[in-house]
Amino acid sequence: MNAVISRRTLLLGAGALTLAGCAVPRGAPSRAEVVAGAGTPEAGFALEVVTRERLALYPTWGRDAHARTGWPAPAGIPMEQRIAAGDTLNLRIWDAEERSLVSDDGARSADVSEVTVTGTGNVALPFIEPVPVAGLSAEGARQRLQDALREAVPSAQVQLSIRQGRRNSVDLVGGVANPGTYPLSERNLALTSLISSGGGVSESLINPQVQITRGGHVYRRPLRHVLDKPANDPAIIGGDRIVIESDPRSFTALGAAQREEVIGFDAETVSALRALSLMGGLADTRADPRGILVLRRYSSTAQGAPDTRVVFSFDLTRADGMFSADEFALQDGDIVMATQAPATTAQRVLMLFGAVLGTGQAVSNL
Q1: Which domain holds residue 101?
Q2: Rounded to the nearest 10 degrees, what angle do helices 342-364 and 2-22 cross at?
Q3: 326 sits in which H/E element
């Protein structure tokens, strides 16, 4: 009876070993499995083993969609704001004459409120022709209106205040404590001054990016670029629309690492080695440091790329591989995979086989 059970145990173990070799439960594929057939038409991708000599080639294969745009000129010395179409003027007109055209009997002044600067840059007042004021300072507009009024009211004196309209205001849309529309009280207002007026940048933003929409142009730079150097702090002009948001770029983390998820860029440049750190590092008992892969897609028009799909491979057991991983810049949408070590698969097979043998031994003891 024991001989029969032993034979059954051996058969069960052999069958389990055969099945285990075909399909062992794993958290990630091996490097050999992922890159099998690389460079062949059937595979549809190219394999690139990253070394120091090859690093300079990769930036020429295709532009990153996050490449920097132009940037407005830096802010200069603050100057008085100029009147623009859409601004609203409030005037107080003083007249010393006994019988005044502009004030009631006994009154020395009259208020003319909510006078809007037209699209042509003029304002209209009683008794005089339209007066062009767009482009003038507050004092320049006051003097011009006073001169025009004195043709009808010789002793007229004018006081003037301005409420800025849309063309002399900016929209701070998001990314700050107090978003909203902010009137410009001066020209050459620096971007950082506007951000300060909005209560500062939200601490929840990751690697904040600044986007300025001005007419038909969109400018985008990292906030750090603006803060690091005064010459990068641009002047804001009326009509600008400013948004501050987290870096929209991300990569997908997969395989034998501590995290498997979509991870956002936390810096302007994220290297393959930094990406592994963001992934929580390699899983000590499963990952193959010789098989760290970055999978990337290129457009069909990309110059120099060997294929529209390229797998970059890093060997972190070698100094050159480690340095190269730290100098290889990820692009938006890359896939970073830590492959599984072959020894891990063999170990799981042996563990499964041992479990089967243990089961067989338990049966034989019955």
Answers
A1: 85-163
A2: 160
A3: helix 319-327
pTM above 0.90, yes or no: no
- Provide the β-strand partners of residue 115: 89
User: Same domain, yes or no, for 129 and 115?
Assistant: yes
Look up residue 256 and give its DSSP letter: S
Please report the pLDDT score of residue 18 as a whole number: 52
Distance CA 326, CA 332 (A): 17
Q: Is residue 5 part of a domain?
A: no
Q: What are phi and psi of 150, to 5 degrees?
A: -70, -10
Answer yes or no: is 231 within a domain: yes
One domain for residues 144 and 158: yes
In a domain, 72, yes or no: no
Centre a 10 Å sphere on the Cβ of residue 144 and count the other Cβ atoms it contains.
16
**Could you tell me if residue 130 is inside a domain?**
yes
Residue for token digits 């019955």?
366
User: pLDDT per residue over 155-182, tens digit each?
Assistant: 889 999 999 888 899 999 999 999 999 9
Sign of CA dihedral 35, 40, 44, 46: positive
Are 190 and 100 within one domain? no
| Residue whose entry in the numeric block shows the structure tokens 């020395």 | 108
Quote the number of domains for the chain: 3
- Secondary structure (3-state) at 89: strand
Pairing of strands 157-163, 335-340: unpaired
